[in-house]
UniProtKB/TrEMBL annotation, chain A:
Coiled coil: none
GO biological process: transmembrane transport
Transmembrane region(s): 39-63, 83-108, 120-146, 174-195, 225-251, 271-294
Biological source species: Neorhizobium lilium
Protein name in UniProt: ABC transporter permease
Places the protein is found: Cell membrane
This protein's record includes keyword Acetylation: no
TrEMBL record, chain B:
Protein name according to UniProt: ABC transporter substrate-binding protein
One of the record's GO cellular component terms: outer membrane-bounded periplasmic space
The organism of origin for this protein: Neorhizobium lilium
GO molecular function, one term: thiamine pyrophosphate binding
Signal sequence region: 1-23
Family to which this protein belongs: Belongs to the bacterial solute-binding protein 1 family.
Cell compartments where the protein resides: Periplasm
Keyword Signal annotated: yes
Domain of life according to the entry: Bacteria
GO biological process, one term: thiamine transport
Length: 309, 356
């Protein structure tokens, strides 16, 4: 093996063996390097095969790859219709509000799970996990049973005489939000927990012993330290909510049409794979743009810095 | 997509059927050794359905049959692109079949082979196309809750939307097909004059009648839930699902006037692993006995073999949409029209749906 360019190895050398000069590689270094490369080979191949390749295929299809009509930008031209913008805006709104609501409900839940006795926390964890195991469709239909016109809530409220006629709790946007928040809440809680666990209680004690009020300690110490979990959780929930389909379709009763429904129709009704691929690409770019913006505002790198340590 | 066979009540009916229909040995040209994969709409009673259709095809011919779901043209297109078609026989809706034909994905049906097994004059020419022969039809009918609406329900789609005469909540499919047809009929167009659909008029009618629809239904399986919980009072629902719920004792009445039928077809994908044996199975399924058994299971009066109706009990025929008095004023979906206009309609439909 020839000596490797110093500038390239310097960075890696520092990480592998800090303090060693790395102009020429010793046999041991070379072996170490070989090991690193061979260990990295499988994850890299998996990354490319499972994530990068499908995306490239999608990009290729969005320009008419594999279709009979040949290459064109027709898919993107077809997307210029105002209906797609409308659907996109609604989907964004749905995903954004769902994320906010999830954060609002998940934060106290996660706080409780981190700070109460571990047995109780374990039980809460089991309950959360069980809801994750149930299928989306089953949970969606379960919400119908609870929320519908003659459902549990309406029967109870009418029965005790609080209301005269049933409330419209489902088959509208409200129903879609309830279902989505319920399904996505565990993801937020489970991302918040490690971030909260990583917070050293000494910080909180120090703040309190120095005379800060509990509210101030919570606001100025606890919340900022738990932010990486909140950032990661909101990204996860937002991305999942953005691609949600069956829950808003059923619980929304036709009043919560998302852009994913349009993609479904493009594939199943119209058989227009190019248009569907183009829509997906636009969504992807849009999501990446949002993540970039989010990074500037909240700092995604915090997740790696503090979370899960 | 709609699943047609969520009809658990009919399992009971199925059990009472004598299955094992083709006791005779198959003619030599029907013998084989391969395995066929049939793709259809799935659901809980699909095994009974297949037993009725194929009978003892595997035993008589030596060709094994398994099944998967759900028919999807886009999937077939991709399978064909990568040269790995997994299905031998597919139960496509009319519009799906035409879409598959447009992309040159289908193999012509071997009618000569079929005639060796089934006399030509038994088959309904209206259901025989170059690339597919009628399997069943999917029906959409108007139904209402007899407790909240009354014994006498709407006689046509115009009355269906009359909130004064029939107060209550309404549900329709959240899909332009057959909603546009329903809207036009509500607007006073006779079933025979629906096609070609005047899209502008249909959307004007949708703007007028659409707001009185309380619930747009995404999945066919939702009908069971909606009916059992009395969530809606009037609906343009799946015939099969509704009849099943009536048989279970739900207080519902249906009306075949201006009902909508969509024909489905047995097709064979081009490049299927076992085209030769697939032709044998499609021919086999056109026999009267199997079709009669499947009619008893599911009241879709639209199979390809006309003699399948012979000897069916009167009360069963009364449930079927295709009897002369029922079919006189019903509408059959024009698959060709939908193939040509689906893209345009779909965009306008989504635009309407998202602007509320």
């Amino acid at each position: 093996m020839t000596p490797i360019d110093a500038s390239e190895t310097a960075e890696k050398g520092k990480r592998l063996m800090p303090g060693l000069p790395s102009v020429t590689l010793t046999a041991w270094q070379r072996q170490q390097r070989g090991l690193t490369v061979s260990l990295m080979a499988l994850p890299t191949a998996a990354m490319i095969g499972v994530f990068v390749m499908p995306l490239l295929v999608l990009l290729w299809m969005s320009f008419g790859g594999g279709s009979k009509t040949g290459f064109s930008v027709q898919g993107y031209i077809d997307l210029m219709q105002p209906v797609y913008l409308k659907l996109l805006m609604f989907t964004l709104q749905l995903a954004f509000i769902t994320t906010m609501l999830c954060a609002l409900f998940a934060y106290p839940l996660a706080y409780l799970m981190v700070n109460v006795s571990s047995r109780f926390a374990a039980w809460m964890g089991v309950v959360l996990f069980i809801t994750l195991w149930l299928s989306f469709l089953a949970r969606t239909f379960a919400w119908i049973i609870i929320l519908q016109r003659r459902g549990i809530i309406n029967n109870f409220l009418v029965g005790i005489g609080v209301i005269d006629s049933p409330l419209e709790l489902v088959y509208n946007k409200l129903g879609a939000y309830i279902g989505m928040v319920h399904i996505l809440l565990p993801f937020m809680v489970l991302t918040l927990i490690p971030a909260m666990k990583a917070i050293d209680p000494a910080y909180v004690r120090a703040g309190l012993s120095l005379g800060a009020s509990p509210a101030k300690v919570f606001r100025d110490i606890y919340v900022p330290l738990s932010l990486p979990g909140l950032v990661a959780g909101s990204m996860l929930v937002f991305t999942l909510a953005f691609g949600f389909f069956i829950t808003p379709a059923i619980l929304g009763g036709g009043r919560a049409p998302t852009i994913v429904m349009a993609i479904r129709d493009q594939i199943q009704q119209l058989g227009n794979l190019q248009l569907a691929a183009a829509t997906s690409m636009v969504l992807l770019v849009f999501c990446l743009g949002l993540l970039f913006l989010y990074d500037r505002l909240a700092g995604i790198d915090r997740i790696y810095d503090k979370g899960g340590k | 997509m709609k699943s047609r066979f969520g009809l658990s009540a009919l399992v009971a009916l199925a059990m009472s059927l004598p299955i094992g229909l083709h006791a005779a040995e198959a003619p030599t040209e029907f013998k084989g050794t391969g395995k066929l994969v049939v793709n259809n709409w799935g659901g809980p009673t699909v095994e009974k359905m297949h037993a009725a259709w194929y009978g003892d095809f595997p035993k008589a011919t030596g060709i094994d049959v398994t099944f998967t779901s759900i028919p999807d043209v886009a999937k077939l297109k991709i399978m064909s692109q990568v040269g790995n078609v997994e299905w031998d026989v597919v139960d496509f809706e009319g519009a799906q079949m035409l879409q598959a034909m447009k992309d040159d994905l289908l193999e012509p049906i071997d009618y000569d082979l079929m005639y060796k097994l089934v006399p030509k004059d038994q088959l309904d020419p209206a259901q025989m196309t170059k690339y597919g022969i009628g399997s069943i039809a999917f029906g959409t009918i108007m139904a209402w809750n007899t407790e909240s609406v009354g014994k006498k329900g709407p006689a046509n789609w115009t009355e269906f939307f009359d909130k004064k005469a029939f107060p209550g909540r309404r549900a329709l499919y959240a899909r332009p097909k057959p909603t546009l047809e329903i809207m036009l009929m509500a607007d006073g167009v006779a079933p025979k004059d629906i096609y070609p659909i005047d899209i502008d008029r249909a959307f004007r009618a949708l703007a007028k009648f659409g707001p009185s629809v309380d619930l747009w239904v995404e999945k066919t399986s939702q009908w069971d839930v909606l009916i059992q919980n009395k969530e809606v009072d009037l609906m343009g629902s799946s015939l099969g699902r509704t009849v099943t719920q009536i048989d279970k004792g739900e207080p519902l009445a249906i009306n075949f006037n201006q009902s909508i039928m969509e024909q489905s077809f047995w097709t064979i994908p081009k490049g299927a692993p076992n085209v030769k044996d697939a032709q044998k199975l499609v021919a086999w399924m056109a026999q009267a006995e199997g079709e009669r058994a499947s009619l008893k299971l599911f009241p879709y009066y639209s199979v390809a073999n006309k003699t399948a109706y012979d000897g069916l009990p009167k009360e069963l025929l009364a449930k079927m949409p295709g009897t002369p008095e029922h079919s006189a004023n019903s509408l059959t979906i024009n698959a060709q029209w939908w193939l040509e206009h689906d893209a345009e309609v779909q965009t306008r439909w989504l635009s309407w749906l998202s602007s509320r």
